[in-house]
Design goal:
The protein is mainly alpha-helical. It has one domain (about 5-80). The chain is about 50% helix and about 0% strand. The chain has helices at about 5-15, 15-20, 25-45, 75-80.
Amino acid sequence: MSPDDTDIILGHLERPEAFFGSSTDRDELLIQTLRNAYAECSERMGEDHLDWAWGKIHQGYFEHALATFGPTSSGDVAAASHGWK
């Protein structure tokens, strides 16, 4: 998304006629989208929404920028700087 995308999307939601056709069409789309999202969450994480948590579905693994930096091939900079093996 570009920095302006949020403003554009909010503008379409606030003034739906040009993009959605009418506020009724917008509302029906949003309601159906939320129903679909709720059904998918129920399917993936169980019926009890109190058990739902971010990270049960979306998980990201990012290597730290300094992970490969340092004198050891394993990237263990702290151990190497203290003389640990």
